[in-house]
Amino acid sequence: MLKSNNLNLEATVRAETFQLCEEALNSVTKFLDGIHFLNLANKQELRAQPEVFELDQLVHNVLNKRNTSFYGSDRIQVDPGFKQKQVCTDQELLTKVLIHILDNAYKFSAKEVFVKMTVENQHLIIEVEDQGVGIPADEMSLIFMPFYRCENVKMLSGTGLGLSIAHKAIKCLNGEIEITSAIKKGTKVKLKILLDEC
């Protein structure tokens, strides 16, 4: 009806309504993609496909990916000190991990989010630190459960799938995820991924 203009709406109202429909569709699609990914992981059907790629290009692509909460923002600060240009791991899985970790850090903090990357002993180490609301200590053991959302962020939009997806993807990359947090001070996520020899 919108497309055929049968509703006789003003052009600006039509455009705004189309935008709302598009945003809702993107949100549902993202949710279903997340459910599908977790289903594959639970059935142990995820397989990493390592390849050599430029890490700085991957980070650039992640930061400029549409349909993320941080798209177009300058609040995410990436440490320029990373020296190793190329790495070998599954680019798609790493992208998924970074998007979900950065999305959480950005949504739950009104200040800058800091990203640092290093390579040590054939491991890629990525640290993401925010200055946000923090995670309650008594809920820390629950944060990787699908659909779980901490009490102090339930007023914010979200599905509670992000950390579950990141956790499953990291496991598939032969990696580890470590999270430390303090209420009203922020959260630090440390990813340690064993690099492949391509």
From TrEMBL:
Chemical reaction(s) catalysed: ATP + protein L-histidine = ADP + protein N-phospho-L-histidine
Entries under InterPro entries matching the protein: HATPase_C_sf (IPR036890), HATPase_dom (IPR003594), His_kinase_dom (IPR005467), Histidine_kinase_KdpD (IPR052023), Sig_transdc_His_kin-like_C (IPR004358)
GO molecular function: phosphorelay sensor kinase activity
Domain spans labelled Histidine kinase: 1-197
SMART domains in alphabetical order: HATPase_c
Coiled coil: none
Keywords: Kinase, Transferase
EC number: 2.7.13.3
UniProt GO cellular component terms: plasma membrane
Top enzyme category: transferase
PANTHER family: SENSOR PROTEIN KDPD
Name of the protein: histidine kinase
